[in-house]
Design a protein that fits this description.
By secondary structure, the chain is an alpha/beta fold. It has 2 domains: about 140 residues, NAD(P)-binding Rossmann-like Domain (Rossmann fold), CATH 3.40.50.720; about 160 residues, 2-Layer Sandwich (Dihydrodipicolinate Reductase, domain 2). It has 9 helices and 14 strands. It has an 8-stranded mixed sheet with strand order 8-9-10-7-11-12-13-14, covered by helices on one side. Strands 3-2-1-4-5-6 form a 6-stranded parallel sheet, sandwiched between helices. Helix 4 links the parallel strand 4 and strand 5. Helix 5 runs antiparallel to helix 9 and helix 7 crosses helix 9. The chain is globular, with a radius of gyration of 20 Å.
Length: about 350
């Protein structure tokens, strides 16, 4: 890398999420060496906005750029596997937007490749790096509320009206589970761990065969349960509640980018609790920069976490380890198999094909 402290970033893609992650790099004071897109024109627009050193007219040119140390991949779900493998083959560290791949088998191939090459790899689950997510983990681990027993969480918004949008397109691994349901599943594994779980799911499918809405029940024997609901058909509070044997913790909406958490401790009397609220507002955007998705200012936390890992010589991030990415995809695979959602081109080894 260029220095022991700051890696040089390459942005693979020039769409909305790539813009927002690049803004996070700028907010963190990082260095963007290059942007690569399907055309030079697209790359130049984002490169100019975030003052990247170079714009490449192909993804291959980006990963071949010797001034790039770590590649952020922000392309559509179905391209995560080929783009991640391409970047790893070029000797680059990789941060890949969620989901890491369409299914567990594809993700394992990426992970095995990164480990064999001794390169850093992380699924970009930005929720994990918000200060209040870290506070939730601290409270759970500290045991002041006792043992976590139940989780209830939701995430929903009304999806785009364009029937050709990627969210509705099975050829682009559309549907709600891979896009927003994943946030709920990772919260469940954050609380209850990566042990084998019993998964039950139901869903409303579109005419194209993707999931517009779903409910997922996960049970870890002798540990706890999670009741999760996501939808692309309605607006939900997007609130999460973790229930312990000594109280409960509420992550106020939007729970995937938390700015308010209330801890309610039981005083021993049924129905009576002592609430305590923690708040951390979103960081401010620099003048002249904008983001496309709600709360994307918080991507700065993820950038800072990745750079800290790279500085320490770590090959994965312990706040969201690669084995947990596999666990989350395994649960989502099981859900899709039950509700009948599979995608063209999924590898034969995938359990949902």
């Amino acid at each position: 890398m260029a220095s022991a402290s700051r890696p040089r970033w390459g942005i693979l893609g020039a769409g909305g999420i790539c813009n927002d992650f690049a803004v996070g790099i700028v907010m963190a004071g990082g260095s963007i060496s290059a942007v690569g897109a399907s055309s030079v024109a697209k790359a130049e627009v984002l490169a100019a906005k975030v003052k990247a050193g170079q714009a490449h007219g192909s993804y291959e040119a980006l990963v071949a750029d010797p001034t790039v140390d770590v590649v952020y991949i922000g392309t559509i779900h179905t391209m995560h596997r080929p783009h991640a493998l391409m970047a790893l083959a070029a000797g680059k560290h990789v941060v890949c937007e969620k989901p890491l791949a369409v299914n567990e088998a594809e993700a394992k191939e990426i992970i095995d490749t990164a480990r064999a090459k001794g390169l850093f790899l992380m699924e970009a689950m930005w929720t994990r790096f918000f200060p209040l997510t870290r506070k939730v983990r601290e409270i759970v681990a500290g045991g002041s509320l006792g043992k976590p027993r139940c989780l209830q969480a939701d995430f929903g918004f009304v999806g785009p009206s364009d029937a050709k949008h990627r969210l509705w397109d099975p050829n682009q691994a559309g549907g709600g589970m891979l896009d927003i349901g994943i946030y709920l599943v990772q919260l469940a594994t954050m609380i209850f761990g990566m042990a084998t779980a019993d998964v039950k799911g139901t869903a409303v499918l579109t005419e194209q065969g993707v999931d517009a809405e779903g409910s997922l029940s996960i049970c870890w024997k002798d540990s706890g349960t999670a009741s999760l609901m996501y939808t692309l058909r309605a607006v939900t509070p997007e609130r999460a509640c973790i229930m312990f044997d000594g109280g409960y913790l509420t992550i106020e909406g939007p729970a995937h980018t938390p700015t308010s958490v209330t801890v309610s401790r039981s005083d021993g009397a049924r129905g009576k609790v002592e609430p305590e609220t923690y708040t951390v507002p979103l960081p401010s955007l620099p003048n002249g920069l904008t983001v496309n998705y709600p709360s994307s200012e918080g991507m700065v936390y993820e950038v800072e976490a990745v750079e800290a890992c790279l500085k320490a010589g770590q090959l994965e991030c312990q706040e969201y380890p690669l084995d947990e990415s596999l666990t989350v995809l395994r649960i989502m695979d099981a859900f899709r198999q039950q509700v009948g959602v599979s995608y063209p081109g999924e590898q034969a080894s995938c359990t949902v094909s």
